[in-house]
Amino acid sequence: MSEPKHHANRPEHALPAGNRASLGILAIFIIFVVAVPKNNLPAVIAYGAFPLFVITASRISLRLIMNRLLVISPFVLFMAAGNLYFDRQPIFDAWNVSVTGGMISAGVIAAKSFVTISALLVYSHSVPFHRFGNALRAWGVPELFATQLQLVYRYSFMLGDEARSLQKARDLRSFGHKGKDIRTTAQLIGSLLVRSSLRAEKIYMAMSARGFGNSLASHQKEPFTMRDAITVLLTTTGFLTVWIVFVPKP
Amino acid sequence: MHMSDALISPAVGGAFWAVSGGLIAWSIKKSSLDQDGRKTALMGVLGAFVFAAQMINFTIPGTGSSGHLGGGLLLTVLLGPHRAFIALASVLVIQSLFFADGGLLALGCNIFNLAFFPAFLAYPFLYRTIAGNSLSPARLGAASMTAATAGLLMGACFVVLQTTVSGISELPFGTFMLFMLPIHFAIGIVEGLVTWAVVAFVAATEPSLLTMQKKPENKRFLTPAVFILMALVTGGTLAWFASSHPDGLEWSMARVSGREEIEGRHEPVHGMLSSIQEKIAFLPDYGFRSTGDGTSDSSDPVSPVNPGTSVSGIAGSLMVLVLAGAIGLFTGAGRRKTEKTGE
């Protein structure tokens, strides 16, 4: 598993805000979407305009996002189906079809899932991982955790390639399902584990030789600029406006 | 079992962010006590290993479908609870933000459900108790299967609780629980089998990887902790499936008198005692107190899941444990006093 192409060709400067502000905007957006009442489909659709705007403005490939969105979690689909089944009270009729409360709340679950996942994907396609690490440090996340995240991300692609090679070698030697049982696979995983721990030892020695002191931070804490503040303020006002227009007061 | 943002409310998401954030901070504090850069590198690489190992599929016996390793318990066995919790949390953060697997607001819930239970409950109270420091395959197997299944079941229970409390889903609590628990029981057994096989492989080829952790200093608290855990599971969930048929005494009375319970004599003392009992019994008939209109509680009459039974089971188990502990302390104190006097 090499690092995906879209990661290598990210529109790094597409976002008008710094690392810390862009992560903050993402969090505020998700809180607004999640807080939409369970029967208010128009509000969720209106919030969907935000990730769509960022996709078009930052020239991220829409196809990449759509491919990932099509694989909606089976758990979310199960919950939506549960609402369809358990809430069959008709709310209104549209073109001779009786629309039930369950249909609307299931639609809201699917739409919220679609919109929040789009926002996360847009973020991950716009912000390189080292900038995400710096954003966490700027928000005061402990250094050990930020370093851990960067190490996991960095080595997951390398070990992923190794896992794929192991799996391919096993599949080439397997006939039907022979050799794909738990016991054989566990030995492959165990072998990958032993190799990983040896690799960790080498990595530590190499990092120590370069002066590693339990931290991968190379920059000073990023300041929260006036531009960041204005961007956060403007986007939050936008989210609030959608809320006022689409979410009626109880 | 990754929760999506669409299934939780901001209050539940925020609360579990606070809980998981606190647990991460505590684990970092504990891990930072030994400033060992070697372990930092190992944590990072083993976190990445979990990602990689999840790509290797295996055939699940008897189903024809395929599955992959979850890795929570395995990572805890290798790194210990605090470092494993940090490593698992970092894997979940990356899965959420960079692979859109699990939501951002739901991240606190996901860290709690998938990392807290294997790292801080299943491993220290089940795995270590059963396996100890032994590398024998039988003990490793029993420890892996029990801890992996218990960890997953506890996580699944919390998924149901978090979703129900959020109020997004129309699924009744009992139906949802009955759907989640058997599936996660089966997943837990498979996870336990794979963890066992991997741990046994490592024990045979590179045993130093399994003995990196210090031996627990004080085992005195492990036995009570396991009993508390078992009591909570039995009282909280297994009690739903208790038989509703009469017990031996009721059955005998029914055969003799035609009624399961014999009515007491209408004397003032009986009446007074019965009224006191009614007042102090806060969970009459192992359920919530009846409301004025005659309904007992909000449980589904068809489903065996009953919150009143769970609360009664948990409260009863804890009271018995406290009482038994108090009696033990009292008799122990008495014996120590006698020994001192004898000296």
Describe what is shown at a glance.
The complex is a heterodimer of chains A (250) and B (343). With 250 residues, chain A is mainly alpha-helical. Chain A is 70% helix and 4% strand.
What is the fold's blueprint, element by element?
The complex is a heterodimer of chains A (250) and B (343).
Chain A: H1 5-8, H2 19-35, H3 41-47, H4 49-57, H5 62-69, H6 74-86, E1 90-94, E2 97-100, H7 101-126, H8 129-138, H9 143-173, H10 182-209, H11 226-246
Antiparallel strand pairs in A: 1-2
Chain B: H1 10-31, H2 37-53, E1 58-59, E2 66-67, H3 72-79, H4 81-99, H5 107-131, H6 137-166, H7 173-205, H8 222-236, H9 248-257, H10 268-280, H11 307-342
Antiparallel strand pairs in B: 1-2
Helix pairs in contact in B: 1-4, 1-5, 2-4, 3-4, 3-5, 4-5, 5-6, 5-8, 6-7, 8-11
Which bin fits the share of residues in helices of chain B?
55-70%
The helix-strand sequence of chain B is HHEEHHHHHHHHH
> Nearest-angstrom radius of gyration of chain B?
24 Å
Q: Record the strand order, biggest sheet of chain B.
A: 1-2
Helix content of chain A: 55-70%
Strand content of chain B: under 5%
* Integer count of domains of chain B: 1
Instruction: Provide the CATH architecture of chain B.
Output: Orthogonal Bundle
DSSP summary, beta strand count of chain A: 2
Task: Please provide the count of β strands of chain B.
Answer: 2
Q: For the residues shown, what is the average pLDDT of chain B?
A: 76
Order of helices and strands of chain A: HHHHHHEEHHHHH
Largest sheet of chain B: 2 strands, antiparallel
* Proportion of residues in extended strands of chain A: under 5%
Q: What structural class do helix, strand and pairing data of chain A support?
A: mainly alpha
Instruction: Tell me the span between the first and last alpha carbons of chain B.
Output: 61 Å
